[in-house]
Amino acid sequence: MSIDLEKGKWMYETMVKIRYYEESMVQAYAEGKQPVFNIGAGPVPGEMHLAAGQEPAAVGICAHLRREDTVTAPHRPHHHAIAKGVDLRWMTAEIFGKETGLGKGKGGHMHLFDPAVKFSCGGIVAAGVPHAVGAALAAQMQGKDWVAVAFIGEGAANAGAFHEALNLAALWKLPVIVVIEDNAYGISVPKQASTAVASNDLRASAYGIPGTRVADNDVVAMYTASEQAVKRARAGEGPSIIEIETYRYLGHFQGDPELYRDKAEVPALRERDPIDRLQAHLTENGVSASVLEELAARARAEVDDAYRFARDSAYPPAEAALADVFDA
């Protein structure tokens, strides 16, 4: 399989940006939380779920999306937000609880919203699927060719909201795509211990819609599968399910002791890192090493700028804690 090289370069830069962002967040999140781990301490409060390693799921499909398309994300949302084009400065400030954040510091890491690019993060398992179906219904009713994409984890495909929303989406032929990120664990429970089917794309047949399985965290395969699903949705042919076999290098949350994982698992996964594989693909197709380094440097510089902005921003004053909450 091959991809358009300009799209490929965007995908590479975005994947590097996501990886560097998450690795930088590991460091920022750890500040002030030791010697006894305390999720409320440090400059970044609350529980933190990072997605290093899962970049292909978000980047492969967002390469086909427009600003007008909707994306909903679960509690592990940074890669989706970055791939959709959420402002990195405002997002980082929100995670730090600063007044310059997307929600003026009120939502934090698990409740990111950016109406400018039609991105939302509900934070609750499977909750984003009904929201995406609602956005797809709105697009259909307005006669727009917009699509909605709901990202969920493989464990969320066992939730009622997933099935109820998909039933309506299939019945009304709504332009929605559910992307299931199979990272093998629902918190600490292996997929085979919680799910009756081998892969969740098989569940698509129950609703009479296409289901596709993307193996081995392959961003090029994800790009190809997503292209067909997005074209189908824009043409009014209804919803699709894509499940991608992906891998999180970090714990379910930062501070997770990961006792459920074999110690050799992550090193083995890193040997087939999706960024390295995309880099090799682009190199084989004529993109020079200097161009790739320029893209990576630009991505890292944007991330560094976002963290500086967040750290330099002010916390909201105490009297502003409920401002805008009851205005309606």
UniProtKB/TrEMBL annotation:
<dbReference type="Pfam" id="PF00676">
    <property type="entry name" value="E1_dh"/>
</dbReference>
<dbReference type="InterPro" id="IPR050642">
    <property type="entry name" value="PDH_E1_Alpha_Subunit"/>
</dbReference>
<dbReference type="InterPro" id="IPR001017">
    <property type="entry name" value="DH_E1"/>
</dbReference>
<protein>
    <submittedName>
        <fullName>Pyruvate dehydrogenase E1 component alpha subunit</fullName>
        <ecNumber>1.2.4.1</ecNumber>
    </submittedName>
</protein>
<dbReference type="InterPro" id="IPR029061">
    <property type="entry name" value="THDP-binding"/>
</dbReference>
<keyword id="KW-0560">Oxidoreductase</keyword>
<keyword id="KW-0786">Thiamine pyrophosphate</keyword>
<keyword id="KW-0670">Pyruvate</keyword>
<keyword id="KW-0067">ATP-binding</keyword>
<dbReference type="GO" id="GO:0004739">
    <property type="term" value="F:pyruvate dehydrogenase (acetyl-transferring) activity"/>
</dbReference>
<keyword id="KW-0547">Nucleotide-binding</keyword>
<dbReference type="GO" id="GO:0005524">
    <property type="term" value="F:ATP binding"/>
</dbReference>
<feature type="domain" description="Dehydrogenase E1 component">
    <location>
        <begin position="46"/>
        <end position="318"/>
    </location>
</feature>
